[in-house]
What does this fold into?
Amino acid sequence: MKRAGLLLALAVTMIGASAETNQERGKRIVDQAVAALGGDSFLRMQDRIESGRAYSFYREELNGLSIAKIYTRYLIRPEPPVPGFLGVREREAFGKKEDSAVILADGKGYDISFRGARPLADERLERLKESTLRNVFYILRQRLGEPGLIMEFRGTDVVENQSVDIVDITDADNRVVTVYFGHVTHLPAKQVTYRRDPQTKDRLAEVTRYSKYRDVGGVTWPYDIQRERDGEKIYQMYSDSVVINKDLTDNLFTLPADMKILKKPK
It folds into this structure.
């Protein structure tokens, strides 16, 4: 009798799962991911500071290593949500004295050094904006409920030695981000998106892997983030510390009035 009951319960579960559409299942998996990341604590996270080591690679060889601190501040998004709204300010600071940095704020970007602030080249600024809009954590924090945003279940696989559920997240501008969520943890393990090389027009795969999740004040966050472009590892950030809700102020993301503005590169 007990075995029959278990079989019946399993059959009902399978029938219920099969009754879901791919979009319904995709949304359910995304909702589970938000809950695993901290639920309301994740959705109400105002800012974040990630401190650690940043590695850059060229042709799979280590090309640079720096102490890094990434400051992120989320902006209040318009309601109802607006497609493509860039609701974040970010400062990537390098070195013990943080004497070099890249700032992305209010649609503008600057590369800061002892020489002054150099506006980012259009191509680089656009790449940073696109990377933000396609980042799964930004999507889950800022873009859910956006008009035209679709989440569609694509199947299951094994990634980083864990079973994953694959979901395509597509926005109104036809950006597609394929996210691999841990089947047990529900946390993002990997994301894949494709873009065109602005020079060659070749289609490039951009892959980001997330691991070593830890609790950060009620929010679950990855301490190890690795990026690949077209099959080659290009970047890794390994955090020693992550803190949230530190009331970051505007001065972190704006240029001092007396800072020299350098010529913008072509």
In short: The radius of gyration is 20 Å.
